[in-house]
Structure formats: C-alpha cells, structure tokens
Design a protein that fits this description.
Elements (H helix, E strand, L loop, with lengths): L4 H11 L3 H8 L4 H12 L6 E5 L5 H10 L4 E6 L2 H12 L7 E5 L12 E7 L8 H11 E12 L5 H21 L3 H5 L1 H7 L3 H11 L3 E7 L4 E7 L2
Parallel strand pairs: 1-2, 1-4, 2-3, 4-5
Antiparallel strand pairs: 5-7, 6-7
Helix pairs in contact: 3-4, 6-10
C-alpha cells in the first residue's frame, strides 16, 4: 500500500540536507549520467518552456535550463519545501544565471493551463506519487501537442541475477549507508516503493491510457534503472 502523500513529503523534507551526497555515494556518481540521458530524451531545445516534476534538489532542472538557455524557461516542481529550498540555493550559485522558477505544488494537480510546456522531465518521482495514472494524465494535459517527456526511475530487472544484486545492494549498501546518516527508515522506504512500482511494460500501458500516442521504456544500468519516454500526439 502506498503511504499517504504527507508521509512521503515528510521523508523527503528530512533527507533533503544529505540527499545529493547520498545519491552520489550510492550510485557511484552514475546518477548524473542517467539524468543527462533523461534530459536528452526529453527533447528540450533552446527557447523551450520546460517542466521538471518532483525536481528535488534541482539536478535535472539545472541540466534542462542549460539546454533551453536565456530565451527558455524551466519550472521545477516539488511538494517538499526543504528540497526546493536547497534547489534554489544551488541554482543561485550558478554562473551564468539559470532561468528556473521553483514551484511548490502537487504533481497530481498542476497549476498550469493545458498545452503549456514544450517538454518535461521527472527523476525518481513517479515511483513516489500516490496516483501514477493521475500523474501521467496531468503530465499529458500540460504538454503541448508534439511535446516529449522523459521519466527516470528505478526499474524491475528481467534477469534473476540482476534482480538479486539489486535487492542485495539495497539491503547491504543503501540502508546501512543511510543508517550512518541517521536515515535508516527513510531509505528503507526504497525497496517497498520499488515493489509497488509498475514494470516497464505496465508503465507503457498506463501512458497510453493517459493519452500518449508514443511510449517507450528504456532499461539502463543493467536494467536496474529505466527511462520512460513519452510523446503527445
């Protein structure tokens, strides 16, 4: 059963101060490569208005902002005020300045009109929303016709050996590392959230039900991660 949204928000507020450091350690820095892949697949171009859902501390939003340049605009959305505070501080230290607006909002009820954005990204957020079909419907609604979205998250590996390694890594590396920061409970949340998360094929079906004409799921990192790439007809 998915925890209430308030509980998930509290988790991300608590881990905000060490979120970037832990992500670097736990992925051996590879998360930066995966995020670059998602940005590339989103199709963001100079001058575009782009959306980064569940933006966290702002990694992907910054990457997209560099793509769209001064003539474009990026909106980073999260429901964690602590994460948004860190994202804003990090972006302010960037030179030249990045064109990003940080918005505290619910991804299930986005505060924009239909057909507003040229592209969208989402990193490690879809797995944590309380209503995935509704989230995809909202994403579809705010994208312009012809726009693309790229959603990066954990994946269910198809190979038994990779599945076993993934579980071992979560149990023996992720949780003990988080424990050293006093965040055992917060990072122990990853495994059950992955168990509930739709497989790549199920994500494709949900995307089509939301209205997307084209949907492709790319397994990466030996199948332990995945990028869902969507196109609005």
């Amino acid at each position: 059963m998915t925890p209430p949204a308030t509980e998930i928000r509290d988790i991300f507020n608590r881990i905000a101060p060490v979120y970037d450091q832990l992500n670097n350690w736990l992925s051996l820095g590879q998360h930066k490569i995966w995020k670059l892949m998602a940005v590339k697949w989103s199709g963001a171009k100079p001058g575009n208005i782009c959306l980064d859902l569940c933006c966290g501390s702002g990694d992907i939003a910054q990457l997209v902002a560099k793509k769209v340049g001064n003539t474009g605009k990026v909106y980073g959305v999260d429901f964690s005020s602590a994460q948004l505070g860190i994202a804003k501080t990090r972006a302010e230290s960037h030179y030249p300045p990045l064109s990003i607006n940080w918005i505290e909002a619910d991804v299930l009820n986005l505060p924009w009109d239909d057909n507003y954005f040229d592209s969208a990204t989402m990193g490690y957020g879809l797995r944590n929303v309380t209503d995935i079909p509704r989230c995809l419907q909202e994403l579809y609604r705010v994208l312009k016709p012809g726009a693309k979205a790229a959603i990066l998250d954990f994946n269910h590996p198809t190979q038994e050996t990779i599945r076993t390694f993934q579980q071992w890594y979560l149990d023996n590396i992720v949780v003990p590392t988080a424990k050293s920061f006093g965040l055992t409970e917060e990072y122990a949340y990853i495994a059950p959230s992955l168990d509930r998360f739709p497989t790549g094929q199920q994500q494709l079906e949900l995307a089509h039900q939301a209205g997307f004409t084209t949907a492709t799921h790319y397994p990466i990192a030996a199948g332990m991660m995945g990028v869902l790439v969507l196109s609005k007809g």
